[in-house]
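debug: dumping io for the single-chain case to check the tokenizer round-trip. Nothing else runs in this session.
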Amino acid sequence: MTSAKDIRPRGDDQAQFLSTSPSTSFHSPSSHQSALNRVNIPVNVKHLKPFATEDIKVLLLENVNQAGRDILKKQGYQVEFLKSSLPEDQLIEKIRDVHVIGIRSKTKLSARVLKEAKNLIVIGCFCIGTNQVDLQYAADQGIAVFNSPFSNSRSVAELVIAEIICLARQLCDRSSEMHNGTWNKVSNKCWEIRGKTLGIVGYGHIGAQLSVLAESMGMSVIYYDVLNLMALGTARQVETLEQLLGQADFVTCHVPELPETKGMFGQQQFEQMKQGSYLINASRGTVVDIPALIEAMRSGKVAGAALDVYPNEPAGNGDYFNNELNSWGADLRALKNLILTPHIGGSTEEAQSAIGLEVATALTRYVNEGSTQGAVNMPEVSLRSLTIDEPNHARVVFIHKNIPGVLRRVNEILGDHNVDKQMTDSRGDVAYLMADISDVNTTQIKELYSSLESLSSRIMTRILY
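debug: decoded output
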């Protein structure tokens, strides 16, 4: 095995750390079981690790899947695991000395929280969204953020198909009645979904998968997106949201949370929908104006709805979905043919395992190798792996402000050494540089580190070897 070190300040210290390289690495396969069976690592790859393994502290919140926890533990990191999110003050206390934090959708990493995270280098969002993180503040501090944008697409698409059928047949109402001892066999306003039109708002990975599933069940599919996207199967794109609402029997939302999508479905949109149509929202809670939906369902304009997301959601499980959380809660729960689920669109074993693998792998690659491939708030930069034939090489990672003259200053510092390979890219106000330097010793690496740290443009310096 080869040794690997990283020089980077921890809090106010500028310390040097030694560690033993791992014998395996992890990639992003399609399933947890196949992951451990399909890792093919060239025998001459030199694995870099940034700190002594016992010094890397990882905090995982909100019941991150076992697959992701296993990857991080096998790296030798100190992993603390909690099943729930934490209130902001408790989170601040916990985050002060960790290098890696993994969260899902409930934990809010605001600027106030991140300001206290003196050792933090990377955040893993074990979910699709990243709106719970102040991405710009994180980037400004040199903290990379990774997520898993596609791993739960199939799970969400299958849930929507199930909800379409349940709404069309009023299955949830019949089931509730039977649980209360009432036999109510009816066919009035119960429909097959074959031959009906599904309108998909947002034709990304989830929308496209849903499109294929719906067509296979005999539905016609139309979709609206702000981009011109190639249709799958016989689906067709319409030019405006109003066109879609006027034609669709079922409308389903799959859009990100953006200023332009907030309140995207309000009174005007409900009036544009077909009489007796259905609405499904498994995207973001702010997309639908819930009081307007309540009125549309009371009037019969909307015959049924399924909601998996809400403007305000509880931080943990319990009897918290009430009027204190959302003032319209009781009115919403009183409606008929309404499916309410607690943000479980991606909550399947398969999806959570895939998310755990993808995000944990991205985290270890960033910590160990400096690769930002897949980061949502940093330029995507990666270099090929060093090999065991390069024992006296070091990898410089320099995150800096994107201002004129920085590269000239950096290259002046590196100029006395042999730079084998180098890559740099910028994103907004932040730039990311990686360089592999050969034939350097510990003293020279310390000098490189000190010189880079002294630059006024510096955000974060890491040196791996």
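debug: round-trip ok. The chain has three domains: 44-147+348-378, 159-340, 381-464.
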